[in-house]
Amino acid sequence: MRIGELSARTGVSRRSLRYYEDQGLLVSTRSPSGQRHYDDDHVRRVALIQAFLAAGMSSGTIAEMVPCMTDPDQRKARRAMAVMRRERDRLSAALESLAAARKALDELIDVNLTYLADAAEGRTPAQPAQPSGPRPVPGG
Fold this sequence. Notes:
2 strands; mainly alpha; about 140 residues; elongated; two-stranded antiparallel ribbon
């Protein structure tokens, strides 16, 4: 398939696909006239790149992992494993932080629902309490 079809199948702009190639994230074959050609594996690769980008990985970080996915050897695999472990740890920390924020938000929603229910029923509502979730860390 050509770049336009890859773009249509993945929802990623042609410009972004060219950027991925420039960064070494994708490797296309070229026709005698110089047109890029892709196959179904490229569709899966673009989806993976998009998932990694959405998770906050830079194109440089993804490029460090690509050799292990396309042409593994022991040296590349060891280097890529270190990068992958680092990114997995970063994602795990981010997930824990998001879960804590969601818990605090759930508590705040519950407190405010109680406040609004009391007010709607004519009871003098107490001042909504603050949730008991984690407190912000100065400078963090």
